[in-house]
Amino acid sequence: MGDPVVSHTVATRWKRYGKDRLYVTASDGVQVGWWDLATDEPHPETPQVAGLLHEAVAVWRSTSPAGASRLAPGSRGERPTTKGDRPTARPSAAPEQQPQQIDAEWDDLAQHRPGCLVRAQAESLRPASPVRAFLARAFQVDTGERSWRVGADGEEKVGARLERLVSKDSRWHVLHSIPVGSRGSDIDHLVIGPAGVFTLNAKHHPGKTVWVRGDTLRVDGHRTSYIRNSRFEAERAARLLSAAAGAAVPVTGLIVPVRAKDVVVKRQPEDVFVVPRMHVVRWLQSRPAAMDDSTARLLFDIARRSTTWTQ
């Protein structure tokens, strides 16, 4: 029996390592195939969906400014199907959740490592003199470079815990170091899974005491703006994801203390949670179910695109 006819597709352009391809996914999550835009050659997953691949590429070319200058589909012969050298792809969700054709070029944020943006900032601020850099570290001088480096260390530690969650349960998806907007903001970690969508803000305070009561969070007695910032970050993420998905996407903010001597939570904030790094995986797993697997995969597909976060 031939493959079922599917009327909705998502076309995603992928440019990396000198390659320029358009990957097409059907609304039921089936991979239709990919089109080599550099050589103008189709690569359907099966012969039965070759027509659907041609149709999807034709629609992309007719609606995308980037595709308008390309040759019409079918101008060259088909080659046997190949599956090698493709970027990691997740199946899309059900038709009623399917976004419109996506034709923007984007960077795959799934390639980002925990703390990579902060680490790069630290490197850019490293003193030109190795002796000065060594002395600053030895005497824990509060330089800009040191603050960024400590922050990167914290993000890497939280990222390691989250990767453990993903390796044990494939229903969970994680992104790290998400650049947001055009002013240097970023989200340390984004977690998508059965319990919903969460932004995680790592706060690395080795040997310090973190104390929380409602909207007040103190580190060794000093009041911080962490809760307000986490709330804003979650609201911003919800707004951007909702716009990209075409439906409301609630997002919950988490503050994750790293290597604190003690974390005392008298009362959690109204809509933000403070969860120590060593407890964060168990906390996520204990949350009530709020999302099915297909929706989580769809949101991960949307969230991994850099263009989602630059609107």
Overview of this protein structure:
The two termini are 44 Å apart. This protein has two domains: 9-97, no CATH class; 109-309, no CATH class. A hairpin with a 4-residue loop joins strand 5 and strand 6. The strands form three sheets. It has a five-stranded mixed beta sheet, with helices on both faces. A four-stranded antiparallel beta sheet has the order 1-2-3-4, covered by helices on one side. With 311 residues, it is an alpha+beta fold. The chain is built from eight helices and 13 strands. Helix 3 (116-124) runs antiparallel to helix 5 (144-168).
Short description:
By secondary structure, the chain is α+β, with helices and mostly antiparallel strands. Helices cover 32% and strands 25% of the residues.
Could you state the order of secondary-structure elements as H and E?
EEEEHHHHHEEEEEEHEEEHH
Our measurement of the CA-to-CA distance between the termini, rounded to an integer number of angstroms, reads: 44 Å
Globally, the shape reads globular
Trace the largest sheet across and list its strands. 5-6-7-11-13
Count of DSSP H/I helices: 8
- Helix-strand category: alpha+beta
Described by strand count, sense and barrel closure, the largest sheet is: 5 strands, mixed
Bin the strand percentage.
25-35%
Q: If you compute it from the alpha carbons, what radius of gyration comes out, rounded to the nearest whole angstrom?
A: 22 Å
Instruction: Point out poorly predicted stretches.
Output: 1-7, 67-103
Count of discrete domains: 2
Query: Quick check: average pLDDT?
Result: 80
Number of strands: 13
Helix content: 25-40%
